[in-house]
Amino acid sequence: MTSSRTAERRIYALRDQINHHNYLYYVMDAPEIPDSEYDKLMRELEELEHKYPELVTRDSPTQRIGATPLAEFGEVRHEVPMLSLDNAFDEDEVLDFDRRVHERLGTNAQLDYTAEPKLDGLAISLVYEDGVLVRGATRGDGTMGEDVTQNIRTIASVPLRLLGNGFPALLETRGEIFMPKKGFEKLNAQAESRHEKIFINPRNAAAGSLRQLDARITASRPLEFFAYAWGQVRGGSLPARHSEVLERFRDWGLRTNPENRLVVGLEGCLQFYKQMASKRNRLPYQIDGVVYKVDRLDLQRELGYVARAPRWALAHKFPAEEAMTLLLAVEFQVGRTGALTPVARLQPVFVGGANISNATLHNMDEIERKDVHIGDTVIVRRAGDVIPEVVGVVLAKRPKNAQRVRLPCYCPECGSKVLRLDGEAVVRCSGGLYCPAQRKELIRHFASRRALNIEGLGEKLVEQLVDTGLVHTPADLFSLSVAQLAGLERMGDKSAQNLVNSIDHARNTTLARFLYALGIRDVGETTAGVLARHFGTLEALMAADETALMQVADVGPVVAASIAAFFKEPHNRQVISALRTAGVRWPEHSVAQQVSLGPLCGKIFVLTGALVHMTRDDAKASIQALGGKVSTSVSKKTDYVVVGEEPGTKLVEAQKLGIAQLDERAFERLLKQ
Ligand code: IVH
Predict the structure, then answer these.
(1) Residue nearest to atom 23 of ligand 1 (CA)
(2) Which among 323, 403, 497, 520 would be 20 to 30 A from 512, CA to CA?
């Protein structure tokens, strides 16, 4: 039996250990134990506190979440106002700042600055009394903020109790709450899958997460904290330099940014700016610039404040990565795989260091989720080398005549029908064999080793053939002459002749290879093989509808839809027919042998009259798929005559020859056997 005294001692020991490991993890970024060990300590503490509820204190690491939702946030007055910073957008403005500081201080000597990344989150004030976190508040208007203590307590990198000793009895530390990029992406992916509203950027996500009346929601959001300033300090003192205060903060368990540097003079500042600019995309959180702070606190005091900003600090901003502009139109671009990407045509805007007039809208689902209308004011983002994107809409600015974005019915490149498969965000052009946007990719695939295996037709050559207009569709390959090829870059007479030979050679192929070569979406080598075996002939496959296609092993509704759409598109049929005219062939008989195991193997059918449940093509395909043959006239060799409505003279002939007759029901039964 644990006595209450030993339990109390153990509880304190556990809390110390847990706080120490929190410190190693969040502040030092150097954990000493695996998460599982940490969880064990937490569990033990929870169990003991459960047994001895009188020993639970507000600063226990178990007490981060738990409070009941608030009706509203209380107001908080900042005894020391929370200021903002003056901004500089270029080097000249930094130079002016440094000059002004020197003039005011009456010195020519180089000054030390603390240079810090400017975090793109929201400012927060944390009050510690005797080392215990008692209040967390937003900046608000700088004088009055909101009491978000409950929510702040849920952020693991905010210590509930300071470590070590020597901290002032009252310490108001200030810093930034932010959401790391990864956490932001995860949160949005979750929102997306639940069809909820997505956040425009990590800053909005952090602000939205912190301003939740139910702390359990905040607890579920990946928020983090870095300390970089302070407000009220009583009952103790801080060191004489900003950089030293930050070091002390770290000792007390307050997380500070490891990127912070003490730099010398203007040169040092600008160098830091450049370093951070190039490191920016690799940082796990968003920054929108850097901050320079005169390091000596006595000099800071001497410099003082103007209006709402200190004279001793400056934010040197990176070019904005986000800007607002008008969405003039939405056009659809066809990619090399036939996917249609909606592209926003924008009123040109300067963002991320360049003028932007186009941005991606990704796909129709994104357009719907972001509720993008033509005529909207949109927020465009251009981060580094990433393609600019429309991240959101300013709904308040939507004009009355804003228009919904409509998906085109036909491919803007080739006029083939556009398809949007159920459950897929991507919309595709169905004219794979014909569409110029897909040409290079298709021809490269068509010629590849496992398809028609045209030796010597590499990627570079395909590019040239398409760019010079010699080849539009795969069928054009078969009419290329040595003279035409020899005129191309890095093509001698000999290699031209070799290529013509291997193209000629490729004419003889198999149905499976041919089907694979067509580049039908979702039809890889295996499916092509299965289709070839099942249908036996290209005609039978082309005549099959989705129901017939789904009879094939491994072909589900998605693949069936892709195949049916492909063959339905007249442009594709044209190219297939051109390929056959060009002499592309495969041994039909060997294919027939492959279906010889079908239940209708060797049986000859004749169709007469109209069937109610299927078209004649369907009936034909079904017979062939099961190994049977369809003939157009009745003879002694005919095994069955399938009799539909209003049969013709074939029925009379069949009766004369005593050939078995099947009505539609009997025929269907036979097919199902
Ligand atoms: S110091 C009196 N340091 O920038 C100076 N601010 O534009 C108080 N910020 O409201 C601010 N990173 O939210 C400081 N390293 C940093 C910062 C930083 C981001 C934010 C902060 C502030 C805003 C001012």
Answers:
(1) 84
(2) 497
